[in-house]
Write a structure and sequence with these properties.
Layout: H1 2-25, E1 27-33, H2 37-50, E2 55-61, H3 63-71, E3 79-82, H4 85-92, E4 101-105, E5 108-112, H5 127-131, E6 138-141, H6 147-162, H7 174-178, E7 185-186, H8 192-197, E8 203-207, H9 208-213, E9 217-220, H10 233-236, E10 240-244, E11 251-255, E12 260-264, H11 272-283, H12 288-294
Parallel strand pairs: 1-2, 1-3, 6-7, 6-8
Antiparallel strand pairs: 3-12, 4-12, 5-8, 5-9, 10-11
Helix pairs in contact: 3-4
């Protein structure tokens, strides 16, 4: 009887191990920027049409925090998609990744809703005055966790210079913005959407693609400050900001530049072959690129 039990159990054990390995081979772990939440879902849905067994495990966070999951927490992922190529370049290469592939662009806007205070008054010439009003509240993401957060500050730095010689009712000072409404700073830009929807805040600094994907009203900022024009790269580079690096004791200087999203396949990827297939789909003009364009990127 004992021999029979062993004979039955051993195949079951091998079958269990086989199932585990099979699942692992089809699992794709993706750390991605919060602003990619909706595009990544659309990309995953299309990819699984071609590779039906693929099981996606998506984790959205600020891109800097995505990188720190690898550098500080020792976690592994198969694809890391960042809202800023500088995050991969400065925090992951060369120790944690070999490559840094751009795949999308964007620009910064000020988004709001019909219920936002003074929504019918705001325009490119008075937005600073409206956002600094005592009865108006705005949100932004954390510069130390999220590229949208430090890009907001870089935009404000460029705006301070841009509006210096323009006719405004009050001098434009970055400090006035960074000290106001600090209680509405959130870890990533998409966390601000709930505050906007509940009318806790009236305006948010965010990517144009996110505003489009969520059907928000938005104010286009001048090209000289919105980080969306590649021909103005040298102009954008005048803005700089120090953020926390791989550890609380480290710091990294981020420089203003046109907004470029990029991805990498980290060295600790558990399923690099499937990650390469997804990367090829992501870069396909009639595949991932078509989806991204349709979603505002």
């Amino acid at each position: 009887m004992k021999k029979i039990i062993l004979f039955v159990l051993i195949p079951l054990v091998f079958s269990f191990v086989s199932c585990q390995n099979s699942g692992k081979e089809n699992r794709l772990v993706v750390f991605h920027a919060g602003s990619l939440s909706l595009p990544m879902k659309a990309l995953a849905d299309s990819f699984t049409v071609m590779y039906p067994k693929t099981q996606f495990r998506m984790e959205a966070a600020g891109s800097v925090d995505c990188a720190r999951k690898i550098t500080e927490l020792g976690r592994s992922c198969d694809i890391l998609a960042s809202a800023d190529y500088q995050v991969i370049e400065k925090l992951l290469i060369p120790e944690h990744a070999y490559m840094n592939q751009p795949f999308a662009v964007n620009s910064m806007v000020i988004a709001f809703t019909d219920r936002s205070r003074r929504a019918d008054e705001i325009h490119s010439g008075n937005w600073s005055e409206i956002l600094l009003s005592k009865d108006v509240f705005f949100g932004r993401s954390d510069p130390h966790a999220d590229p949208c957060g430090y890009r907001t500050v870089l935009v404000l730095q460029l705006a301070e210079d841009y509006y210096r010689d323009k006719t405004v009712t009050r001098p434009f000072r970055v400090k006035d913005f960074t000290e106001k409404d600090r209680r509405f700073i959130r870890p990533k830009e998409v966390d601000l959407l709930a505050l906007l929807g509940s009318q806790s805040i009236d305006y948010i600094f965010i990517y144009k693609s996110v505003a489009l994907q969520h059907n928000l009203r938005y104010l286009e900022l001048p090209e000289e400050i919105n980080l969306g024009n590649h021909e103005l790269a040298s102009h954008y580079s005048r803005a700089k900001l120090k953020i926390r690096g791989n550890s609380p004791a480290d710091s990294v200087t981020v420089t203003g530049s046109p907004i470029v999203y990029s991805y990498t396949i980290p060295k600790n990827a558990e399923n690099p072959e499937l990650a390469k297939k997804f990367a090829r789909f992501l870069m396909d003009p009639e595949g991932g690129q078509k989806i991204l364009r349709a979603m505002g990127q």
